[in-house]
Amino acid sequence: MPPLLLGARDATAIDRAAQRLAQGGLVGLPTETVYGLAADAENATAVQGIFAAKGRPADHPLIVHVAPDAPRAAVDAFASAVPPFAERLIAAFWPGPLTLILPRRADVAAVAAGGQNSVGLRCPAHPAAQAVLRAAAGLGVRGVAAPSANRFGRVSPTTAAHVAEEFADLGEDALLILDGGACDVGIESTIVDCTRGHPVLLRPGVLTPAQLEAAAGEPLRARDEAAPRASGTLESHYAPRAKVRLMDAKQLRAAFQVLGDDAKHIALYSRTAIEAARGTPKRRMPEDAAAAAQELFAVLRELDATGVRLIWVETPPTGPEWDGVRDRLNRAAA
Ligand code: TXA
Ligand code: MG
Fold this sequence. Notes:
The chain is of the alpha/beta class.
C-alpha cells in the first residue's frame, strides 16, 4: 500500500496533516525549497521514525521548522541564545530559505538535533507548510523536524510524486504526503551557523553571501573543520544512480564527437547547445541561476530514470548566484 497523497489546497488535508504530526506520525511536507519528511520535533519516537524511514544515521541533526506567526517566540522555545546578527538574518529572510544553527536549550529536541548542543531552525515560506505548522502549533506542536524527504544520500524531492517514489514502501498509515506543487526554490535552504560569535556559511543555497552579509551586518566566514557535521555537507550527497560528471562546453563537445554513437548510456544537461548522438537524453540548463536551481533535482531524477550510466553536466558559471547549484552538482559528482 502506497503513502496517502492529499492535495494541500484542501483545508481538511491540512488538518489531517497537523493531526498526524500531533499524534507522532510522519508527513511529507511541501516547502519552498524541497519537500521535507516531517514529525513533531519534541516527540523522540516520531523523530526516530524519520531517521528510520530515511536510513539516516541518528547523529545527523535535522532542521526544526517553526510557524510564521510568532517566529521569535518559537525560536526561543528551542534556542538558548540568539546573537544580534542572527536576529537581523531572521528579520531579513524569514519566512524563507534560510536555516540558522543556534545554541540549543538543553532540555528540548535532543533527538532531532542528533545530540548536538545546537539546533537548526527555519521558518518556511510555502503557504501549505505554514498552514500545517500553524495548525500543528494549535495542537501543541511547537516545532516540526523535517529533513529533505529522500532516502539518505539521494537527490532531494521537489514534487509530491518524488516523495511518493522515495517512500513507496510506506503505507497510508505510515506516511501522509501533502501535494503542494513543485517547489519554487528547488534546492535546500542556505545554512548559517550562528553559534560561534560570527556567521559561518555551512551550506550555500539561493541566498548569496553578499545578501547574507548585508543583512547580518558582518562578514560571512567560510566553514572549516570546527564546523558541526551536516549530512548536506558530506561530499558525496544528492547522488542519482547514474554517475554525474561536470565538464565545460568544450570538453563536452569533444567527448561527444569522439564517442559518436558509442555515447549511449550517457545523458546530457548543458546550457550550451552540444551535438550528441540521436536518442541521447538531453536537457538544456536555464541561463538563469534561480531557474536552474528550481529544476535541478527534478532534471537529475528524470535523466536518471532513462537508465543511463552517466549524466554529463556542463559546469555552471562561477557567479555567486550559482553557488547553490554548483555545490549540489559538485556533491552529486563526488
Ligand atoms: O531546505 C531545507 O533545509 C530542507 C527543507 C525540508 O526545509 N531541509 C533539509 O534538511 O534540507 P536536511 O536534513 O536534508 O538537511 C539539513 C542540514 C543537514 O545537513 C543537517 O546536518 C544540518 O542541516 N543541520 C541541522 N541541524 C544542525 C545542527 N544543529 N548543526 C549542524 N548542522 C545542522
Ligand atoms: Mg537532505
